[in-house]
Design a protein that fits this description.
- By secondary structure, the chain is of the alpha/beta class.
- The protein has two domains: 250 residues, Aldehyde Dehydrogenase, Chain A, domain 1 (3-Layer(aba) Sandwich), CATH 3.40.605.10; 188 residues, 3-Layer(aba) Sandwich (Aldehyde Dehydrogenase, Chain A, domain 2).
- 37% of the residues lie in helices and 22% in strands.
- Strands 14-15-16-13-12-18-19 form a seven-stranded mixed β-sheet, sandwiched between helices. A six-stranded mixed β-sheet has the order 9-8-7-10-11-21, with helices on both faces.
- The longest helix is centred in the N-terminal third of the chain and has 21 residues.
Length: 482
Amino acid sequence: MALSQRYPEICHFIGGVWQRGAEGRAVINPFDESIIGTIPRASLEDLAAAVSAAESGYRIWRRTAPAERYKIMIEAVRLIRQRIEDFAVAMTLDQGKPIVQARLEVLRGCEIIEWDAAEGLRTYGRVIPSGVGMRHTVLRQSIGIVAAFSPWNFPMSSPARKIGGALAAGCALILKPPEETPAAAVLMARAFADAGLPPGVLNLVFGEPAEISAYLIADPAVRLITFTGSTVVGKQLAVLAGKYMKPAVMELGGHAPVIVCEDTDPRWAGSLSVESKLRNAGQVCVAPTRFLVHESIADAFANAFVAKARTIKIGDGLDPVNQMGPLANRRRLESIQALVDDAVAKGARLLCGGGRIGDRGFFFPMTALADVPPDARISAEEPFGPVAIINRFQHLDDAIRAANSLPYGLAGYAFTESAATAHRLVEELELGNLSINHFTASVAETPFGGVKDSGYGREGGVEGLACYMIVKNVSHLTQRSN
């Protein structure tokens, strides 16, 4: 089967029915800049229909026993695993990531949904001891209809977080997938429909983001907003949510620091850093970016980083030998080039990479910049690409101060063999997620989210599921005093 035939038709999914809708923007393959599909553009009538469908679906799903919800969600996961190649090829075509990474993303999304489905069986309340004739009961109930907005960099695992949490809690949702990488959400909706999810519980709408968000957030039937994306857009949606008194989960941008202490093997840490940085061509909100390396090992670390970076095979993501694909779009290519050029112009040393590869496709090499001055734009702006900043520090106080200096606080990393140093970093770094001696920011069973301008609320873990539920206290007088 030709690869073009593996890319699904992109349609709205409203009330269990696939709808083409008015034609919208083209979907571009970042490998060769060819058009591989188009997305529809939702009208106000489409959005109204999606809300109505979600209301109908919610009436059914909220009364569906958790054990039955679990069965349907697990069956959907089984189908997704069975169809893993369809997901992986589609994601590589529209997002560019290597096919091996795409398969891993599908499996990670499955693990997230599986965990949420199981945790949905344990949304316990409690009975609070009280006086004779009085009973206080605390219940956890689904919050209602959710408006969910997912990003282009993880087209399957990010929607999986929102779908898994919402469905496990008994909510219905309207998902607006990304315009640039829409295929995985379509394939996921197919799997849930085939698994027996009642119509209207999961709806997809595509189109103009500002129109869709303004409509859904304002609608009284929508009770929760969940968004993953840039801090700029997140703040705009948070203002809208606040206007209508809607709770929100905001997973926003980062600029992750990595503190490499003097007791670390610099060659190991440098090589491992490249392996983490190349994931998704650095287009990851938790990607390690600001490397703060103790001066005694800074040169050895930088040498190891550069040596490893120069071995990376870059090319078509469908060729399994390639470790890094293109950037997702021209916008990212131009932004990263501007940041690198600005840093070099202001005195940073370019250790490797630094410029676009070829003139077709959005390829950019692994790039390392050393001794980047604080007034360089990249020192404060998240590059969201395969660019690493390697600066040195003398005292741990300086490293902690630098790590906390930006308004972001999503994820960070540290390398040390000292328990005392690790404890201090845990206490003092202003982050929602800290990983020590490794680069995995979160797994299905752990909460994920940021502080400061990186957002609020959590996805994953029991904390994530709690965001999709309300707490209701019931006080029941069962015996009147005489």
